[in-house]
Specification:
The protein is mainly alpha-helical. The protein has six helices and three strands; from the N terminus they run H-H-E-H-H-E-E-H-H. It starts with 11 loop residues before the first helix and ends with a helix.
Length: 155
């Protein structure tokens, strides 16, 4: 019998998919409970990325909001269109640069973003019960290294 932990032989991408699924499923349950069950795929990532804690919703550049999702411009635009149509986001032309679009959370979008954040917080609390602070820090450092790999590869 080996002293190695079971996960040492599991490919990292597989473990990362499981982690993403845990967050996605928790967020979906929270959204369903909040009456926000019509958010399209990747929509929760958009809503969670916007500032829902500000006293007044803040406009953010549309390109920045969807940039980290790795979607084509057309897919990103369609996602934002759907979130606007379903009243999670409000869109306007940037008052400084009329070529750019900005988005912000509506009241419904804020409700969804708060539900998503609560789900994330619950997962983080459960994780903190399973691993030490040092292990969590190592996990974050390891995952952050992927950003460096991306930056160095030029992608």
């Amino acid at each position: 019998m080996s002293d190695r932990a079971w996960y040492t032989d599991v490919p990292v991408p597989q473990l990362m998919r499981v982690a993403r699924d845990v967050y996605r499923e928790a967020a979906q349950r929270a959204l369903d409970s909040a009456g926000c069950d019509d958010i399209p795929r990747n929509g929760a990532f958009v809503l969670a990325g916007l500032d829902h804690g500000a006293p007044e919703p803040v406009f953010s550049a549309q390109a920045d909001v969807v940039g980290s999702l790795g979607l084509s411009k057309q897919a990103a635009s369609q996602l934002i269109d759907t979130l606007v149509l379903r009243e999670y986001l409000e869109r306007r032309t940037d008052p400084v640069d009329r070529r750019r679009m900005e988005v912000r959370l509506t009241d419904r979008g804020r409700t969804a973003a708060i539900a998503i954040q609560a789900a994330i917080d619950a997962i983080e609390a459960a994780l903190a019960q399973l691993i030490t602070d040092e292990e969590l820090c190592g996990l974050r450092a390891g995952l952050a290294a992927y950003r460096l790999i991306r930056e160095r590869s030029g992608d």
